[in-house]
TrEMBL record:
This is Fe2OG dioxygenase domain-containing protein. PANTHER family: OXOGLUTARATE/IRON-DEPENDENT DIOXYGENASE (PTHR47991). Belongs to the iron/ascorbate-dependent oxidoreductase family. Keywords: Iron, Metal-binding, Oxidoreductase, Vitamin C. Residues 208-310 form the Fe2OG dioxygenase domain. Signal peptide: none annotated. It comes from the Eukaryota. InterPro entries: DIOX_N (IPR026992), IPNS-like_FE2OG_OXY (IPR044861), IPNS-like_sf (IPR027443), Oxoglu/Fe-dep_dioxygenase_dom (IPR005123), Plant_2OG-oxidoreductases (IPR050295).
Amino acid sequence: MNESSSSSSRAMGTVDVDQAFIQEPEHRPSLSIIEGQGIPVIDLSPVTSNNPSLSSIDALVKEIGSACKEWGFFQVTNHGVPLSLRRNLLEASKSFFAQSFQDKKKVSRDETSASGYYDTEHTKNVRDWKEVFDFLAKEPTLFPLTSDEHDDRILHWTNKNPQHPPHFRDILKEYIKEMEKLSYKLLELIALSLGLESKRFEEFFGDQTSFVRLNYYPPCPYPHLALGVGPHKDSGALTILDQDDVGGLQVKRKTHDQEWINVEPIPHAYIINLADMIQVWSNGAYESVEHRVIVNSEKERFSIPYFLFPAHDIEVKPLKELIHEHNPPKYRPYKSGKFLLKRFEGNFQKHREENLQIHHFKIA
């Protein structure tokens, strides 16, 4: 990780146990791995190829609906994103993180913008064993100055631009265009699976606050105590994840046993997980799923998630088409940007109380 303090910074390179990384006993990874049998793998060719049949699209919508309801997590193939672009971004990511800490720190994230390098992120008050670089999808990205619901002041976030590797910014911008296309296809399929018009979600994303993240997980000398990312649910609409072949992503099974199971990398596939806003918009018909990242004692790991978020001023609430006498609203409305800012604040430093979660908005 970094060289900012004698204990926490050098923890990444030694066997000294830094308490900031240590998970509570109930969250520590099990030594026995449960393979992810049954996690849906969905072929998107009906919406990425020319002249698809209506029957193939109908079948795809049913597959998506089943995966969303039963898992909240699935993998997609034939998604249309060029493999060459994905390889270019992965190589650029490796090149960026291979730099010295001093060079990476030149583009550090700070509390005035979510863009840039960071290596002390917390998930639910425990430090993650990782380094990240975040890049905004829209520039500038409009975002609330504070999480105070009565404060209307707005920030204009801009991206940090590393000098190394060459063409880093161009590769990221090209990749974001592909992620936007894929995310809108997925939103259309999810909308249709809920019985909504296909473009129902589009209005929320005009001035979106989405971003792409580059994750680097160094080898960890105590993988039985720490996690790359602690147990959490994503706070946006959905997440599209590219990962290398090392693996480490685990999802909590929604069955009664609540076991953590491995999500095995499938060559060229993307992992899709529903996030909190889909849960609210669907009034709980679909749920975001808890997941985490375990670390490896020998191998480094790279992953690239794209987090899809709506505009900061969108009021997130159950969609009126899905509300009726026998299915009243299950969530109180909240503003997207204020909620996300609260979550960001919890990522920057350790708090005594639980970070803001979607269940805090659930109507009893």
